[in-house]
Amino acid sequence: MHIEILVEDSSGEKLLAILLPRLLGSQGNPHTWRLHSYKGIGRIPRGLTTKADPAKRILLDQLPRLLRGYSKTPGIDAVVVVLDADKRDCAEFLCELGAVVQSCQPQAPKTLFRLAIEEIEAWYLGDREALLAAYPRARQNILDRYAQDSICDTWQLLADAIYPGGAAAIQKAGWPLPGQVKHEWAAKIGPMMELERNVSPSFGKLRDGLRRLVAQYSHPTYRAANSKES
Questions:
Q1: What is the pTM of this model?
Q2: What does the alpha-carbon distance between residue 14 and residue 41 come to, in Å, rounded to a whole number?
């Protein structure tokens, strides 16, 4: 099975590059995937017609065009889109995303959306053991006040727990420090994470959704149906 995976920023891509081989097996054995990072989430265009400049690489701005393109591309079995929910209503957001897939009918690619609640940093906080292995001097009192997958300015809370001077120091320094710090978190915490230990519900949905996706593809009935279609 080949999967195209779209993620809204490069730090998320870095984390997924670490985790995907544990979820799907080594590249090509038996599944293959390709990661694409973007420079922000953007918004779904009105009328589901992409007018934004593709060179700007804003994910939702380009999503209708991307899915329509994938639907016409041989060799792509599924598309997975990983996004921060931020402060959106998740049910409404997923409905809006589903409408983009429906607009590609009758040739929509198999598409799986997964949301990090509120931000991908929730997945680091969902594995406290991995986080402390990477940052043993993390401020426990700050970690202890985190309610998993809550809407609480998640990345700032994590920064307050593990970065000297906390989120205020990162924000004061400005770009590119926020991006650099998030890359560091992916590089240091990601290798320590255990798939089954993570208590983040949104991480669990990513993990279990990917497993179901490849299991469905491997099922003989699915393979036979798709062989007849081709």
A1: 0.93
A2: 16
223's CB contacts (< 8 A; 6+ apart) are 217
The contacts of residue 69 (CB under 8 Å, 6+ apart) are none
Strands (DSSP E) found in 85-195: 111-116
Q: Which residues of the chain have pLDDT under 70?
A: 219-230
Q: Which residues pair with 78 in a beta bridge?
A: 3
Outline where DSSP puts E strands in the chain: 2-7, 32-37, 78-84, 111-116
Tens digit of pLDDT for each residue in 165-181?
999 999 999 999 999 99
Give the CA distances from residue 46 to residues 4, 106, 110, 194, 228, in Å, rounded to whole numbers and listed in that order: 24, 21, 23, 40, 37
**CA distance between the termini of the chain:** 15
The dihedrals phi and psi of 101, each to the nearest 5 degrees, come to: -65, -45
